[in-house]
Structure formats: structure tokens, C-alpha cells
Amino acid sequence: MNTLKIGLIGTGFMGKAHALAYQAAGNVFEDISRPVLHKIADIDGERARLFQRQFGFASYTQDWQEVVNNPEIDIVSITTPTLLHREMALAAIAAGKHVHCEKPLSPTASEAWEIVQAAEKAGVRTQSGFNYLKNPLLKYARDFIASGELGEIYAFNGIHAEDFMSDPLSPYSWRCDPAGGTGALADVGSHIISISRFLLGPLTSIFAQLDTVVKQRPAYPGASELKEINVDDVARMIVTFERGCSGTIQANWLATGRKMQLEFEISGSKGALSFTQERMNELLYYKAGDDSRSNGFRLIETGPQHPPYGEFCVAQGHHLGFNDIKTIEMAEFIRAIDRGEPSSPDFREAWEIQKIIDIAVRSHRERQWQIIS
Amino acid sequence: MNTLKIGLIGTGFMGKAHALAYQAAGNVFEDISRPVLHKIADIDGERARLFQRQFGFASYTQDWQEVVNNPEIDIVSITTPTLLHREMALAAIAAGKHVHCEKPLSPTASEAWEIVQAAEKAGVRTQSGFNYLKNPLLKYARDFIASGELGEIYAFNGIHAEDFMSDPLSPYSWRCDPAGGTGALADVGSHIISISRFLLGPLTSIFAQLDTVVKQRPAYPGASELKEINVDDVARMIVTFERGCSGTIQANWLATGRKMQLEFEISGSKGALSFTQERMNELLYYKAGDDSRSNGFRLIETGPQHPPYGEFCVAQGHHLGFNDIKTIEMAEFIRAIDRGEPSSPDFREAWEIQKIIDIAVRSHRERQWQIIS
Amino acid sequence: MNTLKIGLIGTGFMGKAHALAYQAAGNVFEDISRPVLHKIADIDGERARLFQRQFGFASYTQDWQEVVNNPEIDIVSITTPTLLHREMALAAIAAGKHVHCEKPLSPTASEAWEIVQAAEKAGVRTQSGFNYLKNPLLKYARDFIASGELGEIYAFNGIHAEDFMSDPLSPYSWRCDPAGGTGALADVGSHIISISRFLLGPLTSIFAQLDTVVKQRPAYPGASELKEINVDDVARMIVTFERGCSGTIQANWLATGRKMQLEFEISGSKGALSFTQERMNELLYYKAGDDSRSNGFRLIETGPQHPPYGEFCVAQGHHLGFNDIKTIEMAEFIRAIDRGEPSSPDFREAWEIQKIIDIAVRSHRERQWQIIS
Amino acid sequence: MNTLKIGLIGTGFMGKAHALAYQAAGNVFEDISRPVLHKIADIDGERARLFQRQFGFASYTQDWQEVVNNPEIDIVSITTPTLLHREMALAAIAAGKHVHCEKPLSPTASEAWEIVQAAEKAGVRTQSGFNYLKNPLLKYARDFIASGELGEIYAFNGIHAEDFMSDPLSPYSWRCDPAGGTGALADVGSHIISISRFLLGPLTSIFAQLDTVVKQRPAYPGASELKEINVDDVARMIVTFERGCSGTIQANWLATGRKMQLEFEISGSKGALSFTQERMNELLYYKAGDDSRSNGFRLIETGPQHPPYGEFCVAQGHHLGFNDIKTIEMAEFIRAIDRGEPSSPDFREAWEIQKIIDIAVRSHRERQWQIIS
Ligand SMILES: NC(=O)C1=CN([C@@H]2O[C@H](COP(=O)(O)OP(=O)(O)OC[C@H]3O[C@@H](n4cnc5c(N)ncnc54)[C@H](O)[C@@H]3O)[C@@H](O)[C@H]2O)C=CC1
Ligand SMILES: NC(=O)C1=CN([C@@H]2O[C@H](COP(=O)(O)OP(=O)(O)OC[C@H]3O[C@@H](n4cnc5c(N)ncnc54)[C@H](O)[C@@H]3O)[C@@H](O)[C@H]2O)C=CC1
Ligand SMILES: NC(=O)C1=CN([C@@H]2O[C@H](COP(=O)(O)OP(=O)(O)OC[C@H]3O[C@@H](n4cnc5c(N)ncnc54)[C@H](O)[C@@H]3O)[C@@H](O)[C@H]2O)C=CC1
Ligand SMILES: NC(=O)C1=CN([C@@H]2O[C@H](COP(=O)(O)OP(=O)(O)OC[C@H]3O[C@@H](n4cnc5c(N)ncnc54)[C@H](O)[C@@H]3O)[C@@H](O)[C@H]2O)C=CC1
What we know:
4 copies of one chain form a homotetramer.
Chain A: E1 3-9, H1 13-28, E2 34-41, H2 45-55, E3 59-61, H3 64-68, E4 75-78, H4 85-94, E5 98-101, H5 109-122, E6 126-128, H6 136-146, E7 153-161, H7 184-200, E8 203-211, E9 216-218, E10 226-228, E11 234-241, E12 246-252, E13 261-268, E14 271-276, E15 282-287, E16 297-301, H8 309-312, H9 322-339, H10 347-366, E17 370-371
Parallel strand pairs in A: 1-2, 1-4, 2-3, 4-5, 5-6, 7-12
Antiparallel strand pairs in A: 7-13, 8-11, 8-17, 9-10, 11-12, 13-14, 14-15, 15-16
Helix pairs in contact in A: 1-9, 4-5, 5-10, 6-7, 7-10
Residues 9-15, 41-44, 47, 64, 79-82, 84, 102-103, 129, 131, 187 of chain A line the site of one 1,4-dihydronicotinamide adenine dinucleotide.
């Protein structure tokens, strides 16, 4: 069996998710090269050391450059704060690595574009961490819509709302640093933007309002010193799609009580789909025109009939979890590398998403509709 | 327009429900005689007086005999504690009245049978207050099953669970007096029994266990004196139906947190139905054999396509409430009287339900399956 | 007991709802004057005649002027297409009647203002048909927010979406005539606007986009001839509130599969509330700061603890329906008349709502934020 | 890092689940010996070969004896049809291996007892595959109940219902062979029995009814030849617990539309818990006595506050899936081996569960309550 050596940068929330997902991908999916965890880097050397031990990396380092420059490594996975993505991604690309970089790709579209161009010129595969697209039900939804089962699309409502910054005492973190991009919009909004494009295609114009409701936060966990917040914690957009319909997209860090309200509803002339990541193994489908006495939204449960669920479990009703969709993401990236085929969502797609975020910011500042060129 | 004069006995929970329902029935339904509230009786004269005023009865009395013997009255509605039903119903029948009596008809099947015989001999119309059968969705469910849409019926699970006696400090009341029949089984269990028969037909055998979990209660609201409880607060039955399938039926007064868990699920070879009175305007339907990728339980919402919803509202999605189904009950009773047709569920049906309760008690005592003859 | 004589104009969807609600109000609520259905008017004389018979009006007419000018009548209820409200309301006010007029009050805010001024000058009571505010759970939500239980309000999301125009073959009707005001925005959007104000107070600015997705419809039911549609079928707004928070408000006629998605979520620093009219007897409440292991949204079910539910039923878990909240509306109007106290929502409130709609239209046309003055 | 060598028998549904879970356990959990997939056996040699390749076992075999007798192997995992468990488990124990055996442990309690005795004499660790107990929410529920948060327990309702045999054309399989034990009762019923014991402790008596609704099935997939079915496809039990409460337990293979209705509700004097594996990341909790206006069932979502969720993901709202709970199962087994501590649920617990099944069969045959000794 072929193997691919992985270099991972970052040992935080996503660092762990990547390490687990690469390992699982090689186990769950038979048709792909087996990823081997080779080197882990974290600026916090002790974290890197522990991480190496836990996940069985061959070695660890405090210096991420050692990862991107290691000649044995095939894939570099970047899971550091967004502000750092650009430098690391460019270096990895320059070293000829295939690069997975967490979302959002970078603080601005122009930086993202720089990375895209470097990657495309270098001919390396790229992957952007919009993991929610990997849910078998979302793939099914996309194909369902594409095949015309919903008829003409009338409207889209999308939101990604969580409450992890709802408490005004939730402290400042790198996510609050405007140098790293917008706040809720980049952090969670990018996910629902990616879904809107995945299901319905390109957006053409945006009107946005960005709020910063909680204006000060403790400078660090438990601090009494307060730091001013200059990124949005709630973002609202009205958008239009190239295919002709309109919709709303929202991002929210202050949605008290909500842990994962990544939700959409799509209405069309022949039917509708409704989904929330809060119940990620369920998709609601309404088929217009059935006998009205016995018609209503159907609660579809994921199963082997929604590939690649069957790789995880042969029977319907046995839920996939978040780590499983991250596993699908890694498997698809490796498959694309194996076959020399396009990966998805790649850095170009991440740039498209970042453009929307940048344009939303401009719309908010200028208080005007903006065309997406 | 024809009118029918109503004599009502009892001004409690159900007394009010009847008064409102008779008035609404005449307004909502065009094709029936208009019920006119004529005389109200309650042993508590002050309550009767206030009730008369509020609902516009022509007169009131402390003596229920004045109701049953009033020559102007066409229909007598009995909403007193169960223990009192027999005497009142027999007197009303003897006076040639059509009689509506709340459920359960009486503490035992033999008393119920006495009433049935008297009514059938007298040729008066009778109605028993199993109101939940009047939900348009239940009528639809019954017809749906009867027409074979679920195929061969495999199994039934039914329960009526509430928590109104869950607190051990909820006091003793007439519902706890064994002279009035069983406890939870008669009080709420009779409803789910009525539904099981309505949807699936006669039962043939029963195994039952009756529990009295809370063994003492305050003798009256707020009392420190405790009174022993000798009726069941949880009842469980395994049952068989004449049509060949089996199932479970439960009654529960101690279902902490549940306000109206009157629920059933029916599985068949071609489909399934699931319902809970907690969401009385929704019926879940699963149709076997549809494309498995887009199949699942459908959430049907009541609408004009489920008669007689349309009499209340012309548009789907505008919920019916409890008082509306009580209104349908009264309208159907009056229509039966108008047309000289059978009413349903009549006293004979109430007797059938009471037989099941009696046999459940016997099964519990003898710890044996019992045949329903 | 005092009585109030009702003159009703219109025998359609709302005409029936009013007739039933007046009758029920007198029965359910003890403390108010008893409404008596006196005269019914409909331009379709045959409908008026049948309606009179069904609901027991003293008389009927084809000429609505006979209602407003009838000296015996105390209250005039207007349930005709919106375009006709102004003339009828002004005439009724001029005749010194208390006036209930269905929502929206009129096609434009300036017409609404004319009516408000006339009514206030005449000193008559007015009521506007925003019935959803009468749900006991919404009253509870309003008080809950006002008492600070949610802390500082962060955000509001509101929508009223139905699918009754989702099928492109759903025909043109008076609701599609721009002379009567906007489309979905006025028709259903006005409800969610009324809720946003009811719960959170005045709005200060709006950005709106109005869509007309289905551009042609059959000229009448079954017609092959098509008529152009010049009103919105989907409307989206970003709004700000005087209290400092922002939100979204949407209206939709094309929400395939949705029968009554009148929904909101309000997040605050101490908690959140979520509600949908699809489950009008349930309110979701999240209380921030509870032990995270056992915390989550609570499903509150309506009960007597949420007045005036107890007037309908003494026990929790017995649902109210749409007609019941219409009954509460009528009872409150009558009580206001009885006591000479302000009614709510009155015509002034309806004018406030209409202003928002007008300003939304302007925002859409000018593609700009608009201040609500 | 220590390693433990795994020998696996069986490459079907559970064989794959075990292989994935052992691999993931070593990655997710830092504190345990790393399991290494050493040898895979399947009577179908080609399956074994492919499985070896996919999951990276060191070798494969057609002969399971080679697994149990391989001196390098530490743990033997048995995932063959139930009928075969006994011989394999006894051989593995005899060879001094720690043994994981899928549920149910064996067709009868007496065989299970033989295995338990052998294992306890040999002093090896054992684990039984009742994976649903490994859900962090179930662990939380158990501790919650044990700490008295629900007060005195009133009642238990449990069911495990699926529809995978609902279609009469679903063929005969080893699950239908009475030599392997009961049908639905052993197959899915054993899970809900394990949960009832996990949460509430020992059962004391049972009354059971076992149904065989579908009496013939195709002899093999697609066969026209039919084979008689002699095991139950629906099983119903009324049970009592040592702690004093009663309840129901059901198993069902014919629950049309249900993919994983593994569900329970527990009511107590101070609160209630409700759970369904259909939404395995949610637990409903009702706390009695809170302000009734804002009280209701709370929807708890799994998070790091429910260990060991945090090993998989640092943030709440990111679902665990079925494979994750199987991973927890394996990690706990390995930890027990590492520490020389009891594992749970071990073979003795599996025997306790099997006793209940045997006694249920006896109760069904004798149509009598049976005491569990
Ligand atoms: N796909 C998804 O659903 C999610 C994606 N993300 C994205 O993943 C990225 C990382 O986020 P988290 O894992 O939540 O952050 P985190 O703060 O948990 O982890 C970041 C890690 O990067 C390390 N790091 C920082 N500077 C470094 C340097 N110069 N060299 C090496 N290591 C360095 C830190 O020590 C830390 O271990 C972000 O871009 C974020 O937007 C985060 C959460 C979910
Ligand atoms: N269909 C349904 O869903 C329900 C049916 N019921 C049934 O309705 C009946 C009454 O129950 P509730 O209304 O809840 O009881 P309640 O206790 O609220 O009211 C009983 C009324 O009967 C009066 N009463 C007692 N003795 C009397 C006498 N000798 N003469 C005249 N009046 C007398 C009492 O003063 C009281 O007003 C019972 O049979 C009960 O099972 C009760 C609740 C719901
Ligand atoms: N509160 C709510 O939830 C709802 C409010 N409405 C509002 O109620 C009003 C009426 O709507 P619907 O009842 O649905 O309309 P509809 O079309 O069902 O009924 C309108 C009635 O007015 C009559 N009418 C028309 N011109 C007349 C005239 N010159 N004189 C006398 N009668 C005349 C028609 O013959 C018809 O009976 C509208 O303003 C609408 O927005 C409608 C539905 C729900
Ligand atoms: N924990 C859980 O949730 C579940 C547990 N199970 C249990 O797992 C066990 C296996 O069930 P499944 O995996 O569904 O069965 P399966 O039929 O999918 O797989 C059984 C495997 O055993 C192999 N096998 C048969 N005889 C053999 C022999 N003599 N030597 C070596 N291999 C042999 C077969 O070739 C097949 O690969 C059963 O005891 C079942 O009750 C099954 C499904 C779910």
C-alpha cells in the first residue's frame, strides 16, 4: 500500500481533529494511500512533544519551517490561527508540498489570491477545511438540487450561530484580532457561505451589516483588564445568486444556547430542503404536489444510501459524528492527490469564499449593495 | 333553525369544556340543530349560579334531578365525578333524554352495561366523552389504516401519561377513590384504550400490571393528614387485537414533566403512523418502499384536507386546540340526534372500554392473561 | 349582563374567524360585555345571507354602509380586502363606532395615519388584527424580556413564511394587487413586524430587499390567461431597534412545505427564547449560566400559568388553537371598550407597522438604509 | 508506549466496527496501551485477506483457532454470529487471552455462565459489546440518577425498535436461527435490557410476550423458496426492578420507518430523563419544581462537560457518532487491562442480561410472571 507522509502544524482544536482524521481516513477508506503522521510542529514545544507521543508522529519540532522543508513529507496540514496561514502555506507550496489549510484561508482575499496563484503555479493539490460540506447528506442535497428535484430555486436562508462568545466574560483570543480577518463572519460565517456556494453556486451581490455587540472583553481568560473588540460578533447579509434567487446568510457568536446552529433552508418550485448541523444526521425534505392529506416534511436519516456513509457503517441509523466528516475530508484530499484530480474545496474555492467576506465588509462600511466580480 | 335544549350537570373541568363546546358547535357547524344552554346543575349552588351567568343558561339548580326531569331539555350532559354517572345517566334515560356522559362511563363494566341496556331500550342517543378521537388527524389515521395503506398491522404502542399526580404532595381527590373505578387506568388509560379500538378494532386478550407507587397523599389540598391510596397511578398492559396483532397500552399519572403524552405508534408492512397529543396538529407517516435516499417519516400538519378542520379555518397551519375537538364531539352528537343515526363513541363503546379496564384489573389480581369475551 | 352589538363586513377567511371569535369571547370570558352578532355585510349577497343564518346575525345586507350606519351597532369589524379598509374604517369612525379592522390597516402609512387621526379625534376604540400577539406564550415572552430575564438583548431573527403562493399556478388574487399594498411583506410580514415591536419595542432603521420571484400567475383559479405580478413574494430586511440591538425580519409566500413558519429567536446575555407558530403551544427558553452538564433549551408548554389560557382550560397540555387566540383578541378589545382603556394593538400601532412596510419599500427602491422617523 | 496485539474474528458489520474502534482508541485516548491489529480471521478467506489489507493487520487466516492460539496476541475480539461465540470465547480464555465478545454473549444463559466461569477462573479481562452504554450522555444519566437528582424512580419505559426485518421479503439469516438464541429480543432487546440495568440496577421479575409476526421469509436474499421463522420479531416485557419501580421493555424488528429507536424515559419524584439513540447527542431532562411558567424538558447537547467527549473534540455541539462510542468501548477495555481493574460491561454482566432473556422466554412459554433469581 502506498503511503503519504503528513506534516502537521498546530496542536489545538483543529490540530487534534486533523491528526485523528488522517489516521481514521487510512482505516476507513480502502482505496486511498495510507497517511502516515510524520512530523508535528507547534510553537509551544511541550505541546508538540506530547502531541507527537499521543498520535505517534515520527518526530516533533517547535519550528514549523522544519515541517514544510522536510523532504520526506508529502502533505502539510496547517491548523494555526488564520493570521499565520499565508506565510506557512506559501512556504509549503514553495517546497512542493500538497497543502491542507484550515478555513478561512487567510485574513483577506488578496492574500488568499496570492496563495492560490502560488499553489496553481506549483501544481500542488490544496484543500480548505470546510468540513461541513463532507456530510453525506450535504452531498446528497447538492446532487438532489442539481438534478432539478427542487425545481426552480426560490430562496435560501442560511445561518451559522453559536454561543461561545455569548458571555461578555468570554475572553479576547486570536479570533478577536482584526489582523486575522473578521470575527464571527470569518470564523463561522465562512462555513455557511461555503455551504451556500456548494449547494446553489456563485453569489453575485451582497448587502451586509456587521455588528460588534460586546465591545470589550477580558484581555485573557480570567483577566480583569478589558480589551476593546474590533471585529463583528454578529453579521447579517442579504445575497443574490447567479442562478437567479436571493437569500440571507448570517453569522453569530452570541446566539445564547446555540452550540451548532449551522442551518439552512432552500425552497424551490418542486420541493424544499431544510438542515441543521444540530442534527447532522437528518435532512428534511418536502416534495410539492403529493397528496396533501399525507404530505409533509420527511425526516431523512443518513445511511449507506448516502455515500460514503457505508464506509463507516453498513446499517442506517448509526450516526456519523464530527470527526467522521473530517475523516471524509482527509480521504477525499488524499484521493485527489493519488489520482492527480482536482480536490474540493480547494484554495481557489477558499479564495472565492474570502472574496465574499471582504465584499461583505466593504458593503457594511459603505452601507451599500456590492457586486461580486 | 332547529334548537336542542341542553341540561348540564357539573361545573368543573369538563363542565366548562361542555358549555363552551355546545356553544361553539352551533356556531362552527352549519348543518346541525343549534344547542341552547338551558339548565345547569351543581351540588355547589354558588358555582351553578356563577356558571349560569357566565354561559347564559336559562336557569340553574343545586339538584341535578331538576335537570333530568325538566321536560324542555333534549340533551343531558353529565360531567360529575365518575362514581355519580350511573345514577344520573339512568335517570336521564328514564326521562327520555339523549345523554352525553363523560368518560369513563362508570366505575365498572357491569354498571356500564346496565346503562347501555337502559339507553338502547329507551332508544335515546348516547355519547361518551372520548374527545381525542375527534381530532381530524385521528379520523384520517383510522381511514388510512382501514383502506390498507399501512398493509398488515404488525404492532401497536400506546400510552397516556401525565404528571399531574407526580408530586407526592398532590392531594387525594375523587379520582383516588376506588369506588369510582381504577386510578390512572380509568382516568387517562381509558383514552388510549379508546384510541386503540378506534384505529385497530377489538382487543382479544390482556395482561396487565397495576402499580400504586405513591402510597399516601394529603387528604385534601394542603393537608398534613395523609390518606392511603388504593388505586393505580401507573398501569401497563400487553394486549392482543382481533385483527391479529399485539401491542402495549400504558397509563401513567406520575410521568414527571409530561403534560399530555397521549401517544401511539402503529407499524405495518407498508407503513407506519406515529402521533402524540403533545403535538396534536401533527401526524407522522412513514411510507415503506419509497426511494430510501429521500424517505423518512413525514410530518403531516392538520388542514382543511382533514375534515372537519375546514369548518374552523380555511387555511392549513392554523392549529386546532383542545376545545375545538370537544366542539367536534358535540357537533357529531347533535348531528346523530338530528338524523336519528348512531352516535360514536356511544355508551356501548364506553362499555367495551370499561370491560377492558375491568379485565385488566382481573389480570393484575390473578397475574394471568385474560381473554376478553 | 351588558351586550355589545357587532356589525361585521366580509364573510371570507377572516369574516368567519371574527364571527366565531366574538361568539366564543362572550362564552369564555366572564368579565366582558357579551358581544351579539347583529348585522353581516358582504358584497356577495348570497354569502351574506348564508352567513347570517349560520352565525345567527339578526340581519344581513349587501351594502356595508348599512352596517356602519346602523345606530344599534356598537362595534364594526372589517374583514374585507385591505384596499377597502380605509373607506370602511373612516365611515365607521364617523358614525361613532368602535372599529376592529383586519391587518394590515391599509395599503400605505399615510392612509393609515388618516384613519388613526380620525379615530383618535372621535375617541373610539380601535383594534388591529395582529392575532398572533394574543398567544399567552407571547405575552409571557414579552413580560419575561421586559423584566430583564434575557439580560441585554443581542439579536433578533424573525420570519413569517408560508407556501400558499409557492405553486406558480396559484392564481392572482386581491393580495397580488399593488393598489392594496405590498405582497408577502404586508400580508405575512406585517405579523412578524408586529411581534418584533411587541417583544422588543420600536425599530429605528431598515434595509430591505423585495423579490418578485413568480412573475406571472393565472388571472383567476384555473385560468390559462396569465397576469403579471407586481408585488413581492419574498421580502428580507435587516433592522435595528431603538433598544440597541439589530436583527432580521423576513416575509415569504413561497416557502414550499411551510404552512405557518412564523418564527423568532431572541438572544440575550442571560438567555434566549425561540418560538414558532408551527408549534404555537411551545416556547423554547435557554437560561445562561446553569450547570452546563444539564442545561439546554427548555420546552415550555402553555398552561394556566400563562394567562388567559386558564379561561379556556384548567389543565396544562390541552392546546389552544388559532381560533382561541382570535377569541382572546376579541375579548381584549371588548374589555378595553368596557373599561374605556386603551386597546392593543390599536390603529396607531397598525400605523407604526405600516410605516415600517412603507420604509422597507423605499429602502428596496433606493437600495439604501432608511431611518424610521 | 505499550502496545497490545489484537486478534479479531469476523469481518462483518461488527468486525469492521471493531477494527476501526481499536485503531481510533489508540489515537483518541492518550492514557492507554496502543492496540495493534495483529491477525484477522474469517471463514471466508477472501474477506479475511481484503480485511487484512484494508486495516493493516499483520496477517490473516481462515481458521479462527490460529487467532486464539497465536502467542503474540493479547486480546481476542469475537464478532461472529452469536451461535459461535461460546466455542471461540472458551478457546480464547483457555489460551489466556483477554476477550471482547459481541453481544449477546451466547444463545443461552447457561452457556454464558460456562464462559463467565472460565474467564473468571482464568483471570482474564472480558468485555461485552453493549456499546450504547458508552455514550457520554448515558454515563451522565447513570451518575445523575445515582446521585438522587431524579428523586425516587417511579417508572421506566424502554424500547429498541428497528425496521430492518419489516419487509416480509427481508431474508432469513443467522439472526433467525433459534439455535443462536431468540430473535429481536436477543438482537436488539439485549441493548435496552443492558441500558435498563446500567441506569436502574437489577431486575427482579418479568412478564413477557414474544411475537413472531412474519412467519416465513425467503431462505436467502432473493430466494423464492421460503423458510419458516421460529424466533420472535417483536418482544414485550413488563418488568420490576430491585430498587422498587416497574417498567416496560420492548424489542422490535418490524418497526417500519424506525432505524434506531433505542429509547427510554425514566420518571422520578424530582425529575425525568428521556433519550433516543435516534438523537444520540441529545438528552432530555425535566427538573420538577422549577417555576412552572418557564419550566419544561431541557435539551442537553453532548459536550466536553460529559467525559470522555472532550477526548474527541474540545467544543460542544460537534456530534459524536456510533463509531466514536465503539471507540470509547475499546479504550475502556484496554484501560481495564492496563490497570488490572474490572472492565464493564464484562461477561458476567452479559450473563445477567442473558438470564433476563432466558427468563423472558420462559415467561412467554408459561404465560406467567417469572422471578429473576
Ligand atoms: N474546520 C473547522 O470547523 C474549524 C476550523 N478552525 C480553524 O482552524 C485554525 C486553528 O484554529 P484552532 O485549532 O481552533 O486554534 P487553536 O488556538 O486551538 O490552535 C492553534 C494552534 O496553533 C499553534 N500555533 C500558534 N502559532 C504557531 C506558530 N507560529 N507555529 C506553530 N504553531 C503555532 C498554537 O500553539 C495552537 O496549538 C483557524 O484557522 C480556525 O479558523 C477552527 C475550529 C473549527
Ligand atoms: N374527556 C376528557 O378529556 C376528560 C374527562 N373527564 C371526566 O369528566 C368527569 C368530571 O371530571 P372533572 O370535570 O375533571 O371533575 P371536577 O372535579 O373538575 O368537576 C366535577 C363537578 O361535579 C360537581 N358535582 C359533584 N357532585 C355533584 C352532584 N351530586 N350533583 C351535581 N354536581 C356535582 C362538582 O361540584 C364539580 O363542579 C369525570 O368523569 C372525568 O373522568 C375529566 C377531565 C378530562
Ligand atoms: N389576522 C390574520 O391572521 C389574517 C388577516 N387577514 C386580513 O383580513 C382581510 C381579509 O382577508 P381574507 O378574509 O383572507 O379575504 P377573503 O378574500 O377570504 O374575504 C374577503 C371578503 O370580503 C368581501 N368583500 C369584498 N369587497 C366587499 C365590499 N365592497 N363590501 C363588502 N364585502 C366585500 C368578499 O366578498 C369576501 O367575503 C385582509 O385585510 C387580510 O389581510 C387575512 C387572513 C389572515
Ligand atoms: N454491538 C452492536 O451494536 C452490534 C452487535 N452485533 C453482534 O455482533 C455479532 C456479529 O454480527 P454481525 O457483524 O452483524 O454479523 P455479520 O454476519 O455481518 O458478520 C459475521 C462474520 O463472521 C464470519 N464468520 C462466520 N462464521 C465464522 C467462523 N466459523 N469463523 C470465522 N468467521 C466466521 C462471517 O463470515 C462474517 O464475516 C453478533 O453476535 C451480533 O449480535 C451485530 C450488530 C450490532
